DNA sequence: GTCTATAGCCCGATAGAC
DNA sequence: GTCTATCGGGCTATAGAC
């Protein structure tokens, strides 16, 4: 599986960086290899020399996130189920989002990427394992909705232009605060 | 602006319904007029007889949501700024999501749709007005992040398969509860 | 490793018969 | 209102020169 990458894979890295930019601006389906090549100042064929297909580019762009997610899942799985483990997973996810701000907002939720990831055995099923780790095997409707809202919100903060001005430290603190309020607050009886 | 729609616009409605289905499955850029026509059992030209361009179809699919959002914005704008108004807007958004479950999750956040809406004067700026109504003119970082998380989460619940089993009543109750915890909870001092 | 050139397909969109 | 047929163009992908 090792590929003989000339001297250094620097062109390869430039392709991936440019692809990510364009995916963020136009979406994956809206980005052609021609656009990537144009922005790099090379031809389509040069890009094809680095990646066999467009799907390979997408998978390579997403890979760092998936690998990191897998590590988080394994670390969490090794711990006993508890409130502490839930918090460990949530904080890990927040840090993951911070480390890949743009990437997550753009690529996850994209139907093209979803289908692509689902067709690759090693990455499919991660989100299901995640849900179980956070809400347990038999979640209540409250748990389900809370996790869905927080998960969806977490993914969307990356690409949110309103939040571009916040530095990582502030964003981490605020996201942890939001998680506490949303996920770790006891239900209070409400009078109808 | 009234269009002379043959006898009844039933074919037109079928096109829109089918388009929505496909947008949900493949994304907007990933859906061709050929796919829409194939699923309907007609040819591309028949679809083109109902809509001048693909963009017209997308705009028409989104229109009910935008119109309802505009009504909500105007009703809210007529009220004095207060906690009560914030809650009114949030509850209105929740009901809007419930009324268009699939549509919202699929189309909003799609770069193609975003660009299309931005180029149409009458719909652009709605989300900005929304943000102001909920968090005010000078939002704190906490407000910004809370609203971003809840907004992103709200949009994503529509397409979430984990939540497909929940009926509208349950989902409304749980979303309101999540909004209370996330948006309307006083900050508590935390010891570092 | 990058180039030119091209194959073959599907795209959005149009014209005109029925 | 639906059809067949077609346009021009962009797409992914390949072949082969430098």
Automatic annotation (TrEMBL), chains A, B:
Domain HTH tetR-type: 9-69
Family annotation (InterPro entries): Homeodomain-like_sf (IPR009057), HTH-type_TetR-like_transc_reg (IPR050109), HTH_TetR (IPR001647)
Alphabetic keyword roster: DNA-binding, Transcription, Transcription regulation
Pfam family, one: TetR_N
Matches recorded under SUPFAM superfamilies: Homeodomain-like
Superkingdom of origin: Bacteria
Protein name: TetR/AcrR family transcriptional regulator
């Amino acid at each position: 599986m090792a590929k003989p990458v000339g001297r250094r894979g620097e062109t390869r890295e430039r392709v991936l960086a440019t692809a990510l930019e364009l995916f963020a601006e136009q979406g994956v389906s809206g980005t052609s290899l021609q656009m990537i090549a144009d922005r790099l100042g090379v031809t389509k064929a040069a890009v094809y020399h680095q990646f066999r297909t467009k799907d390979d580019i997408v998978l390579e762009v997403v890979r760092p996130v998936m690998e990191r997610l897998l590590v988080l899942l394994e670390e969490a799985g090794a711990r006993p189920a508890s409130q502490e483990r839930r918090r460990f997973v949530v904080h890990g996810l927040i840090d993951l989002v911070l480390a890949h701000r743009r990437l997550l907002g753009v690529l996850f939720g994209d139907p093209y990427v979803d289908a692509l990831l689902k067709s690759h055995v090693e990455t499919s099923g991660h989100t299901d394992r995640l849900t179980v780790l956070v809400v347990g095997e038999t979640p209540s409707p409250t748990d389900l909705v809370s996790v869905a809202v927080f998960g969806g919100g977490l993914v969307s903060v990356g690409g949110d232009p309103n939040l571009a001005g916040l530095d990582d430290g502030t964003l981490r603190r605020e996201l942890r605060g939001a998680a506490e309020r949303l996920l770790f607050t006891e239900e209070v009886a409400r009078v109808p």
